[in-house]
Design a protein that fits this description.
Strand content: 25-35%
Number of strands: 5
Helix content: 25-40%
Oligomer: single chain
Shape: globular
Radius of gyration: 14 Å
Largest sheet: 5 strands, antiparallel
Structural class: alpha+beta
Length: 106
Amino acid sequence: MEICIRNETPNDAAAIEAVTAAAFLEAPHTSHTEQFIVAALRAAGALSVSLVAEAEGAVVGHVAVSPVTISDGAIGWYGLRSSDWSLTAVIKRRDWSRSCQTASAA
């Protein structure tokens, strides 16, 4: 399966919401609001980086980076969403997330 990493487009919003919700569906550490957080950051223009992974014409992953506030007032810090990459179950089974995390950290 060939995977293309690209910037998100306005047409990707619904697919990103679905991938994010699915990625956190069974996570015990979540209140299942991640897709709403991403949408709110997008609406506020606060996504500094928002990339999708696309395979066979479908969005199968998403990662976003946004500015964060540090308690000591330091500026210039960015947060990678806590999930690193939201990935569909098919991609997770291929252990693709490890290579994506390395790529997004570079």
